[in-house]
Amino acid sequence: xxxxxxxxxxxxxxxxxxxxxxxxxxxxxxxxxxxxxxxxxxxx
Length: 44
Description:
Blueprint: H1 17-26, H2 28-36
Helix pairs in contact: 1-2
């Protein structure tokens, strides 16, 4: 994994599955993330 540029602001979006489902209905930003984003960390 590449190092993160510390000069660039970074704020992860953390949602429960229920919040994600609710947000994806009317939030175009969340829909775009779901369509083309990458999972950086997933609890196993």
